[in-house]
Structure formats: C-alpha cells, structure tokens
Amino acid sequence: MQQIIFFFIRNKNFLLFALLFFISFVLTLDSHSYHKSKVVTSANFFSGGIYHIKSSITNYFDLKEQNELLTQENNRLRTLIENGGRMTPAGIIDSTLLDSNYTFVTATVINNTYSKTKNHLTLDKGSNDSLKVDMGVISPLGVVGIVNSVSGNYASVQSVLNTNSQVVAKFKKSDHFGYLVWDGLQPNIVQLTEIPRLAPVALGDTIVTHGRSTIFPAGVLIGKVLNFDRPDGNDYYKINVELFTDMTSVKHVYAVSQKDAPEIKQLEKAVQDAEQ
Amino acid sequence: MQSNETLVNIVRFVSLVLAQVLVLNHINFMGYINPYLYPLFILVFPLTGNKSLLIFISFILGLTIDMFGDSGGIHAAASVFIAWIRPVALKYSFGVSYQLNTLKISTAPMSKQVVYIVGMVLVHHLVLFSMEIFNASHILLILKSALASGIFSVILMICTILLFSRRSA
User: Fold this and answer.
1) pLDDT per residue over A177-190, tens digit each?
2) What is the distance between the alpha carbons of residues A55 and A49, in angstroms, rounded to a whole number?
3) I need a labelling partner for A24 at 20 to 30 A (CA). Which of A41, A61, A65, A248 fits?
4) pTM of the model as a whole
5) CB contact, 8 Å: A56 with chain B?
C-alpha cells in the first residue's frame, strides 16, 4: 500500500501531465469530428463578451467597405424585384412575406479566422434571437458557413473554410450537384467534388447552393469556376471554385432557417429506417 | 514578497491571453503565419515554483486560448507538454545550477536564453500544429507551419523579455 502511495507521490507531475494531456487530446479529437465541436467554444458569455467589446471598437474601421457591400446587395435585390416581382401584389416588397418557408436573422461577425485548417466565426446573436445549431449563414455575396454551437447571446459558425465542412452545391445552369470542400490552402478557393463526367463544365460557371440539404435555401451564390480537370479514367471532375464572399472580411451576415426542415428530416429518417 | 509574485503572475497571465487572442491571432502574415506569445508565461514562470501547479496553470492557459480560437484542445495539449518538459529544458540550457534560486531568465547570458526559448517554442509549435492538422500525410505542412510561426514567436518573445526585464545596475 505504502509502495503505491510513494509511487503516486514520486510520479505526481507525470501523472498530472498525462491526465491533462489526455483531456486536451480528447477535446482535440472532438473538434476534429464533423459537427461535434461543442465542448469548448467561443460561444460563451466570457469570450463572446470580450470579442463583443473588441468588435464594438474595431467596427468603425471598415464602415465604408461594409456599406458598399450592403449597397451592392440592395442593388441585386432591387433588380430581382423589378424583374421577377411583377406578379406580387403591389406594395409588398418584403421577400420574407412571399416565401415564408425561410426566416432570416441578421447578425454581426465579432470574430473571424481564416488562416487555420479548421476555421470558425463568432456571431453576436444566439439562441435568444432564435439562432439554432445547423442553420446556414450567408453574407450579402454568398455562403459563409453553418452554425455549430449556440449560447444565449452568441453563436459559433463553422466556416466553409474548414476541412470538416461539406456543403451541397450545384451549377446555376444545370442541376448537376456535388460537395463543396476545402483543402486548407487558400482562403478564397474551395473545391467542388463529385461532379459527374456527364456534366458540362466551363470556366466562369456560377456555383450556387442546392436546396437538398435543408440548411441553405436553393440558389444562394457560392462562387465561380476558376479551373477544373478530370484525370484520365476518373468519373468525377475536380473543380476549383473562387468564392464570391471575401472570407477575410465578413461583417454583416444572415442566419437562415427553413421552417419545414424538421419535417423533411423526420420524413427522410423514417424512410431510411424503414429500408434498413 | 510571495503575494507580490502571485500578483505579477496573474497580471502576466491575463495580459498575455488578451494580447494573443485580440492582436496576435489576427496577424496572418503571408496568409497563415501567426506568432504565439502566450507560452512565454510558462517559460518565465518562477524557476523554483511548484511544478505540479505550473502544469495545471498551463492547462488552464491553453484551454483559455482554445476557447477563444474554437480549436478544441490543441493549445492546452501543447502548453501542458512544454510545462512538463520545462525542467529538462532548463537543465539542458542553464546547467543544474538553475535550482539554486540565483538564476533569472532575463539576466542569464543571451546565448543560453536563446537556446532555452528556441527549444521550448519549437517543441510547443510541433505539438500544436500536429494536433491542429492531425494528419501524418501532411507532415511537411506541419513542419513548415511550426518553423514559420516559430521564428516569429521566438523574436517576439526575446523582444518582450528585453522590454520588460528590470535592468539591475
């Protein structure tokens, strides 16, 4: 007995080290699995609060640039109303009333990383503003990421610049779809995989989201084809896509939720269970 | 004296964390290079201080950085690791006499300081980037990131030590 106690006392530093290292290792493993980085996140009142103070100071530095972005978006939406909105009753210009399946919540990015292989953003809205896990996050120019953890007043978003991210994307001109992933190299270029050989691909083609995943509405802009190739004997293209959104400077974003998402998911799950 | 030392360490902890998460994490030199200054806390922790306490504080320090960066436990793992090997690094760089309470990091010869800092920073960054990238087939990327960030971290740490060391006459 005494031997055991002596052993513990003699090796207490190593044992403490081993225990804490093991805990860190488990936390790291946890953060490497898709959609599970929930134990230690910046979406809590402490780090969220500090980022909030910081962004309330630094907000003023890029007001001009952000205003231009918002004007651009207004311009795009106005064109949309002018061209497609003829059928709508006069006076209704709020697009959320027209297609009430989707609800949008505006939020401000208070922390953003883009230089690591697994990048996250922190938003200044949380569950009190009806943000939920698995909501899509889009900027005025395109897709930004998916909410993966929320607290009362803050939310953490898994950026598209995260090697764990997978967004279902398709061509604007056809319905061939594939998965958008990131190889971790450049913050403005992502990869579109699993586009079949049959699909017509050209430089500059616009890539948009596919409505299939219930996270993003169909047709949200993503980027344009920068270059592509298909190794001989391979059935799928490897396409580099240049993002429309400058991920190194996103400020004002919208979190999107689909009202029917739980119903669709439930139905799909029921079908899957029945087939097993 | 004792409480003074504790206070200095608390202030050092808070200011290093804030400097790291608010300024240094956003430098992104050449797209991906960020210096890591916070391990300085572990490097200059009182040499005769309690080793178990240091390992535990390092864990908290790393976890705080992880919380701000949404990075799981990579900084915690790297910090705990260098806190554990610190006695070996001290003995290797300064000789056995470091335990005699007379040595201060900032007053030791420059060459010994550099050996100590470079060794510790390199080990820290290697653990950090192996955990972050977590893929043996990207070993070159790990080495490249560790080296690039390491150079900046070392320079920044030496500057910080020079800036804050109280010159004895």
Assistant:
1) 899 999 888 888 99
2) 10
3) A248
4) 0.71
5) no
